[in-house]
Design a protein that fits this description.
- The complex is a heterodimer of chains A (312) and B (268).
- Chain A has 312 residues and is mostly helical.
- Chain A has a domain of 217 residues: MetI-like (MetI-like fold, Orthogonal Bundle).
- Helices cover 74% and strands 2% of the residues of chain A.
- In chain A, strand 1 and strand 2 form a beta hairpin.
- The longest helix of chain A has 33 residues.
- Chain A is flat and about 90 Å long.
- The N terminus and C terminus of chain A are likely disordered.
- By secondary structure, chain B is of the alpha/beta class.
- Chain B has a six-stranded mixed β-sheet with strand order 8-9-10-3-11-12, sandwiched between helices.
- In chain B, helix 3 crosses helix 4.
- Chain B is globular, with a radius of gyration of 18 Å.
- Classes of the chains: A mainly alpha (312), B alpha/beta (268).
Chain lengths: 312, 268
């Protein structure tokens, strides 16, 4: 009985104020401080070790904008873009083939993906380079005729090797994207009298892009790095030029760091581009578009400018 | 005359031909027989309601009418023409996808889950088929779409994406989208089943308005009030067959068949 009375009496003591805001002492996470200190210590030790190592760091800025390096950067980008183009176009074709009702085309697509995904790119590059053993000539009738070894330039080898391999991966990404679109969408389009092709182009693919773009961005970044393999088939790009300079200037390791820095710069720029493409295809899928990085920075600066305003 | 009146002009056609005629329609999904011989006739300008428990085959039958599902036996005619096939002598030829698409232009369909295109605004949804399929001039299609959106009470939502609209608003956009093709027949597949009870009324108002304008409508529904007030005919289906049919008021208030009685006692 007494407890009942106490309970009813409690709120009456502070009639209009409502419940009191909780002021509790937060739990202290001492473990977090310890791990943070350990992590920073290890980081500092690593950086110190690198700065004290027998590496001539000055060589890196000396050659950073060397014309050979810049040519290499250009060729790496060119290879990436062209191979990805082959990969994306091939991937879309293969994905549509795999989803088609024709058992022959879908099995061919399956077989293609099985082969190109199941063997290493480096092996494929060498195979393309040496296919002259199978095809002695490239003979396109009156238009073109040449020895395979003359026809298969290092650039073409690199493009075919990287692009056709990429197509196998892109096919699976595109297929996942096409399957992710609700079946009701194509039904609605068909009910409106749209043909299969038009439904695919206007309704299904634009929605599939939302699923396709993020892993494709990943593939572009992967491709940019994989281009370093084509040095093996005599096509010079960033890594090859960096190696060459390293051997001539007596600073081989330094040039590896230089190449790594350039790769990092390029992948970072690509990530930013990916963000904007994703944002474009997100329209309609969420109520408000996510902010661009610039908008985010601006919003953060504004909220920093008036810290008191945040609590009010 | 503006395009808006086109739907009202349907009496011009030969009204002796039924808009939809089904003769012994069968449909199976693998071993499962969903439709076991449906015979019915939908007259032009009529509001035809299909009711029945879930799994009774009413949605499947509706989807057969615009050939989203292929029937296995029987004959199905829309406006006197065979659905999905062409008959020459005593042989049936399957229609090409393009020919099927051509026939679907005249049949509007509204889905339970709206199926609006999420990457397009309400207005873009409505003009998509007229511009892409009928090759209508974009400006004209837009003008017409605004009239249609106004007709369903959403003139101010033309630039909203489907995700920014409530279910009831989305369904009304979907109705406008179907009307933009000037169909002679509208199919409604449980148009209010996915809606909050509060929003059902707005959609039914639009459908009532459409019925008054003379549109031929086949409505699969659980809204018995709508069927009674607006419907001209009603069919109760169960287990893939038509159990009972007649005027909605009669069937709903005085069902003859035992199965109809037990169904209605549960839903009314």
């Amino acid at each position: 009985m007494t407890s009942d009375i106490d309970r009813t009496a409690g709120p009456k003591g502070s009639p209009s104020a409502g419940p009191e805001a909780i002021k509790a002492i937060p739990v202290r996470h001492y473990g977090r401080y310890v791990t943070a200190v350990i992590a920073i210590a290890i980081l500092v030790a690593i950086i110190y070790a690198f700065s004290q190592g027998k590496i001539n760091w000055h060589a890196v800025p000396d050659y950073f904008f060397d014309h050979r390096i810049l040519t290499g950067v250009y060729k790496t980008l060119l290879l990436t873009v062209l191979s990805m183009l082959i990969g994306i176009v091939g991937g879309i074709i293969l994905a549509v083939m795999r989803l088609s009702k024709n058992p022959v085309t879908s099995s061919i697509a399956w077989f293609y993906i099985w082969f190109f995904r199941g063997t290493p790119v480096l092996v494929q590059l060498f195979l393309w380079f040496n296919l002259g053993l199978v095809f002695e000539y490239v003979n396109l009738g009156p238009i073109y005729k040449n020895y395979w070894s003359d026809f298969m330039t290092p650039l073409l080898t690199a493009l075919l090797g990287l692009g056709l391999n990429e197509a196998a991966y892109m096919a699976e990404i595109c297929r996942a994207g096409l399957l992710a679109v609700d079946e009701g969408q194509s039904e609605a389009a068909h009910a409106l009298g749209m043909s299969y092709g038009k439904t695919l182009r206007r309704i299904v693919i634009p929605q599939a892009m939302r699923v396709i773009v993020p892993p494709t961005g990943n593939e572009v970044i992967n491709m940019l790095k994989t281009t370093s393999l084509v040095a093996a088939v005599q096509y010079p790009e960033l890594f090859r030029y960096a190696q060459d300079i390293g051997q001539n200037s007596g600073a081989p390791v330094e040039m590896y760091f230089l190449a790594a820095a350039w790769y990092l710069i390029m992948t970072s720029v690509l990530s930013v581009g990916q963000y904007y493409i994703e944002r474009y295809y997100a329209r309609g899928s969420s109520r408000a578009l996510p902010p661009t990085p610039l908008q985010k920075v601006r919003a953060n600066l504004l909220s920093l400018g008036r810290p008191k305003g945040g609590t009010a | 005359m503006t395009g808006l009146d086109k739907t009202d002009a349907s009496p011009v056609r030969d009204s002796s031909i039924p808009m939809v005629k089904a003769e012994g329609v069968h449909k199976s999904f693998g071993p499962l027989e969903v439709l076991k011989g449906i015979d019915l006739e939908v007259r032009s300008g009529e509001v035809f309601c299909l009711i029945g428990p879930s799994g009774s085959g009413k949605s499947t039958f509706l989807r057969c009418i615009n050939h989203l599902e292929k029937i296995n036996a029987g004959r199905l005619y829309v406006d006197g023409e065979l659905v999905g096939y062409r008959q020459q002598g005593d042989k049936l030829y399957e229609l090409r996808d393009r020919e099927v698409a051509l026939k679907r232009r005249d049949i509007g369909m509204v889905f339970q889950r709206f199926n609006l295109f999420p990457h397009m605004t309400a207005l873009e949804n409505v003009i998509e088929a007229p511009v892409q399929v009928k090759k209508q001039n974009k400006a004209e299609a837009r003008e017409r779409a605004r009239q249609l959106l106004d007709r369903v009470g959403l003139a101010d939502k033309a630039d909203s994406y489907p995700s920014q609209l409530s279910g009831g608003q989305q369904q009304r956009v979907a109705i406008a989208r179907a009307l933009a093709m000037d169909p002679k027949l509208m199919l409604f597949d449980e148009p209010t089943s996915a809606l909050d009870p509060e929003l059902v009324g707005d959609v039914l108002d639009v459908m009532r308005d459409l019925a008054e304008s003379g549109m031929t409508m086949i409505v699969v529904t659980h809204e018995m009030g709508f069927a009674r007030e607006v419907g001209d005919s009603l069919v109760f289906m169960d287990g893939g067959v038509v159990v009972e049919s007649g005027h909605p008021r009669e069937v709903l208030t005085n069902p003859q068949h035992e199965r109809t009685q037990s169904f209605l006692s549960k839903v009314l």
